[in-house]
Amino acid sequence: MRSASLHTSDLSIGYKLSHGAVNLLHQHINLQLYPGEVICLLGPNGSGKSTLIRTLAGFQKPLAGKVFFGNDDLSMITPAQLARRVSVVLTGQVEIANTNVFSMVAYGRTPFTGFMGRLQPEDRAIVHQALEQTGIKNLTNRKFDELSDGEKQKVMIAKSLAQQTPLIFLDEPTAFLDFPARVEILKLLRQAARSAGKAILLSTHDLTLAIRFADSIWMMGKEKPIATGTPEDMVLNGEFGNYFDNPQVTFDRFSGTFTFEAEKIGKVAVAGSGLHRIWLEKALERKGYHVVQETKSDCHISISENQHFVVDFINKKWIAEDISEVLDILKNLDLSSKTKD
Amino acid sequence: MTHAAAKYQIHPHNAVFKLLLLSLLIVIFFVLNITIGSVMIPPGEIVRILTGHAATHPAWEGIVLSARLPQALTAMFAGAALGVAGLIMQTLFRNPLAGPSVLGISSGASLGVAVMMLFITMPAGKFISISHVTGNFGVVVAAFAGAFGVLLLIMALAARFRSPATILIIGIMIAYAVTAIVGILQFYSLKEDLQAFVIWGLGSFANVSWQQLAFFIPLLIIGIVLALLMIKPLNALLLGENYARNLGVNTRRISLLAIFTSGLLIAVVTAYCGPIAFLGLAVPHFSRALLRSSDHLLVMPGTLLSGMALALFCNLIARLPGFDGALPINAITSLIGAPVVVWIILRRNQISVS
Predict the structure, then answer these.
(1) Could you identify which of A109, B104, B181, B334 might form a hypothetical disulfide with B175, taking C-beta atoms 3.0 to 4.6 angstroms apart as the criterion?
(2) ipTM computed for the complex
(3) pTM, entire model
(4) Residue A224, Cβ neighbours under 10 Å: how many?
(5) Across B35-117, where does the E strand assignment appear?
(6) SS3 of B36, please?
C-alpha cells in the first residue's frame, strides 16, 4: 500500500476552555490522506470541520493523539519545516491593499526565500507557473483588493501551489462563489492532485460537487464518529442520509441531492414525457403537489403536441401555455378534498 | 517578494527615487534646523563652526554645537524611531490606529515622570524650570522605568493571550488607568512641580544633551536594527496570523519581539523627549501612501526616512523666528500629523494597515 501523506493516530480535537474544562468535538480519529487524492470534508455547521483542519495544519494543538506527516510527528515539526509540508487556504477573505496578484502568489515562496524575502529567478518562475496553473496569468499585475471573490480565491490557491507543499488544506474554498466558479476551483484542485501528486483536503457544504470531485469523503457529524469512504459508496450505504438528515431535509439517493418535503396540498397526475414533463413535476413538487398515478387523482395534466399543458379537472379543461399558468389554474382548484385515495 | 513588488507593482525607479527624495529632504531640513533660529547666524559662520573653526562670536558656537545640532539629531532619530514603532504595531495588531500612545507605553513613561517630578523630588519646585528637567537624568530614568514597567506587563499579557486584538484592548485600558493615576498625582502635587510636568508632557526635542545623545542614539539604533530584522515576518503577518504561521513564521516569537522593539523605541523617545504625539501613528500611513506599497522592505525604510523628515520639519516650524525658539512640539506634530492622516483617508477612501 502507498504510504500516507498524512495520518492521524487516535486524535482528539476540540478546544480547551477556561478553568481546565474541555470542549471535546471528536475523539479516536484515525484518518489517512494519500498523495494524488482529493478529499472533501463534509458535515453540518458546528461539526468541527474547521477545528479538524486547524488541528491538522498545526494552528491548534490536539487534545490527545497525534498527527503524522509521513513518519514525522506534527508536534515535533518546526514552523519553518511545516511551511514546506502543508499550505493552507483559509476561510474568510484576506484584506490587503497596495499589493498586486504577483506579490500575493509570491507569498507562497516565503518559506524558501532568504532573510529579507527577496525572490530568486527560480522563485519567480515558480510563481509564474502557479499563476498559469490557476489560469490567472492575466491578473498578474492587478491589485488584489480589486478582484472578485472567485479571483481572490484562485490567487490564494496559486499561493498554495507556489508553496510547493505535498499537502494542501482548504477551509471552505468555494463558499461565496457562484456555481461555475466552484466547478472551476474544484477542477483546478483535482488537476493539482492528479498532475503533481498533491494530497488535497477541503471542507465544503457543496454535496453535489463533493460527490462529483472527491476521491474520498470524510463525513463529520455531531457526536458521531467521522465516516470515510468513496462518495458513491457513502450514497449507497446511506451514510449521507445519516449525517445530514433532519426532519426538514432528506438525502435523495437517486439524484444525489437533498430534498425537503413541502407540506402536501393535493395530488396531481401527469401524463407525457420529455423535458416539459420533468420540469412540470419539479414545479408541482415545489408547490407541494404530490405527483401520483393517473387513477389516484381527479386532476390530470397532459402535455400536448405543441408543448402546451392541458389541465383536466373532473369535467373541466384548461389549456395553459406555460408552467406558471398551470400553477395559477391549480391554485383555484380544491384538490385536497376532491382527491380520491 | 520585494523584487516582485518592485518589478510589478510600484516601478522600482519610482520607489527608489522617492526614497532618495526623502533623503534629500532630510538633508535640507537638517541644514535649515541648524541655520534657522531665534538668533540669526550667517551661513558662512555655521560652516566655520561645524568644520571646527572658531566663530566670530563665541556665543554662536554654543548655539550651534550645544543647542541646534543635538536638537536636530534628536528630532531626526526620535521621528525615525516613533514611525518605525508605529509601523510595527500597526502591522502586528492589524490596526491602522495603533501607535505609541495606544499600548500605554508612553502613558507608562508619563507615570514614571509624574512620580519622579511630583512626589520624589525633595524641595518643592525643584523642577520649576525646563532647564532643570534637561539636566536631570532622574527624569529619563523615571520615564524609562514607567515605560518598561508597562511594556513588561504588556509582554507578560501577550505571552498569555495570543490574540493581538486582546493585547491592543488591554493596552488601551492600561493607558486609561495609568493616565488616571497621573491625574490623581497631579491633583495632589505642588503648583511648581505640576508646571514642570506639564511642560515635559508637551514634548520637546531640545532637552537632550550630547552626553544623553550617547545613550539615546545607540539605543534607538538597536531598536531600528531589530525592526529591520523583522521585515520578512512582518510582511507575512499582513496576511493574518494563521497565514503567517503557515508560511513558516514563528508568530509567537515575532509578536514578542515586535512588542519589545516598539516598546523600546517608544520608551527611549518618550523618556528623553516627552510623549510626542501623532508621529508614530501618521508616519507609517504617509510612507505607505507615498510608496503605494505594503511591502515592509520598502515601507520600513520609507517610514524611517519620512519619520526623520517629518520630525525635522516639525522641529523647524516650532523654532521658526517669531515663535521665540520653542512652540510645544506636540502642537506642531498634531497639527501636521492629523491632516496627513485625513488626507490619506480621503485619498484612498479608507485607512488600513497595508
Answers:
(1) B104
(2) 0.82
(3) 0.83
(4) 14
(5) none
(6) coil
CA A85/CA A11 separation, integer angstroms: 19
Give the integer Cα–Cα distance in Å for B212 and A12: 58
Distance of CA B161 to the CA centre of its chain: 27
- 8 Å CB contact of A110 and B5: no
Nearest CA-CA distance, residue B209 and chain A, Å: 36
Helix and strand counts by DSSP (H, E) for chain A: 12, 18
Residue B185 domain flag: yes
Question: Is A97 in Cβ contact with B248 (below 8 Å)?
Answer: no
Residues of B in contact with A141 (CB under 8 A): 8-9
| Domain count along chain B | 1
CATH number where B76 lies: 1.10.3470.10
CA pair distance B183, B104, nearest whole angstrom: 15
3-state DSSP of B134-149: HHCHHHHHHHHHHHHH
Helical H runs in chain A?
49-56, 79-82, 101-106, 121-133, 149-162, 179-196, 207-213, 231-236, 239-244, 275-287, 323-331, 335-338
Q: Where are the alpha helices (DSSP H) in B319-350?
A: 329-348
Q: Do B232 and A119 touch (CB under 8 A)?
A: no
Domain region containing B102:
13-322
Domains along chain A? 6-255 (3.40.50.300), 266-338 (no CATH)
In a domain, B298, yes or no: yes
Interface test with B, best of A55, A90, A107, A142 (most B CBs within 10 A): A107
* Positive or negative: CA dihedral A202, A206, A212, A216: positive
Q: Is residue B126 less than 8 Å (CB to CB) from chain A?
A: no
Interchain pair B294, A109: CB under 8 A: no
Q: What is the pLDDT along chain A (341 residues), one digit of tens a residue?
A: 568 899 999 999 998 887 778 889 999 999 999 999 999 999 888 889 999 999 999 999 999 999 999 999 999 999 999 999 999 999 888 888 889 999 999 999 999 999 888 999 999 999 999 999 999 999 999 999 999 988 999 999 999 999 999 999 999 998 888 888 889 899 999 999 999 899 999 999 888 889 889 999 999 988 888 999 999 998 888 887 777 767 677 777 777 777 776 667 788 899 888 888 889 988 888 888 888 887 778 888 998 888 889 999 888 889 999 999 999 998 888 776 544 44
Residues in A closer than 8 angstroms to B285, CB to CB, are none
